[in-house]
Write a structure and sequence with these properties.
heterodimer, A: alpha/beta, Rossmann fold, 6-stranded mixed beta sheet, 3-stranded antiparallel beta sheet, globular, B: mainly alpha, MetI-like fold, 2 domains
Chain lengths: 257, 263
Amino acid sequence: MNADARTPEIEIARLTKRYGDGKPVVQSVDLQVRKSEFVSILGASGCGKSTILKLISGLAVPTSGTIRVEGMTPQDAREIISFIFQDATLLPWRTVTDNVGLGLELEGEPSSQREEKVKSLLDLVGLRNVARAYPRELSGGMKMRVSIARALATNPRLLLLDEPFAALDEMTRDRLNEEILRMRAEQSWTAVFVTHSVAEAVFLADRIVVLAANPGRIHAEFPVELPAPRTSAIRTSPEFDAIVARVSHALRETLHQ
Amino acid sequence: MKQRAMTVVNALAVFAALVLAWQIVLWIFHVPAFMLPSPKAVAQAVYRRLPTLLNAFVITGEEATGGLAASIVVGVVIALAFAQSRWVRKMFYPYTILLQTVPIIAIAPLILNWVGAGMPAVTLIAFIISLAPVIANTTKGLISVDENLVHLFLMHNASRAQLLFKLRLPHAVPDLFVGVRIASGIAVIGAITGELYAGSSRVGEGGIGYSILYAYSQLQTDYLFALVLAATVLGFSFFFAVMFLEWYFLHRWHESARVMEVQ
């Protein structure tokens, strides 16, 4: 792997995706994500934000343009990528422990080593006391924690999150946002986070990319310069409000084009 | 628990009422015993001929179990093949519908011709008739996996075998049980129907279907009734056995198996 410090984690150039003969869903997108950077992608529905994640993960193939993850093609980079879906996408016939260990199991990690790892992850997401429970016994927020633990189990260097908290209530969502930042501070992975909540995007990200729809393209970018350990208190600060206002304004512009 | 006891009490009350109605019909219309025997005569026939009755019960039970077990094994294997590609499904799926639509009565003589009378022929008939629901439901379960779960597996570079055995197959188990539940009912019917044609290689000795024909030809109507009762008990046993297995395998994670109470 030829990833020295100056190679961007993700390098996207003139990326276009079109399904069949239709209008492109994503057109000529250029985007670079630095190592350990947290980028939020915001946009109205239909702007291709989920499609971009699918393309980065190699689950979809671009019509034209290139994507490199640490210099590799998305398919080759899968080992270092974890994907977190909108639904928790747990296997209902497996316990919490076995769900968290799924990725390691598929990658052939022996079960003795898996056990240690899964235990420490359950501690990380605060689910040690439901280790033997089945998904149907868990709340929506707990399921999402399992999903996060599963994604982190394989030590990813890049995390792709596709509106992971969209179905949760606001309180649960805020708490999980804080925990995501805490885990990131400990593990320093790179993240691309797709959402349609401006406040969530601002709270989490180092940089926000606003997409316009029809065809999906980059409309504006905003750096988010908020003081380093971001806590829930930051949500009520004037700096936070100012950024939210600017990003919201840009988002509204995309709707009036 | 109390509710379950009430269900049993209710069922027994209905049974008693039916027996009473049956007896009243006999008292009012003076039906001859060879047309409609009394409940008491049927009970006596059960008691008197218990060994032969049990023998018939066991024979039919074995045939239906064998046919059902074979249809589960073969059905799951076929469903696994169907799950591999849309092409295979398109080519072969219509033939599973054929399995369901060809009346088994029509091909029973053929099977008798090929296999000869006796238990193997009947087991084969029970197998053929119960195969289609297993294939159809298991195939549905194997291919109706959430796309994101497939993506999740692909992101971990899962092999084809891992996708099949760690994702599609466990996901299909509830659907498999739907198929087996349907199949278990028709396996019993298939075995009894089969016996009407291919019942026994020895005169006077065979399963429930064969014995029904024999009792009918001898005008032993009370024993005929006892045999009908045995067939019902057999059907019930299959139903509850499958329900228990379904509960055993699924209750921890799947909603369907948690509803065991009669609604």
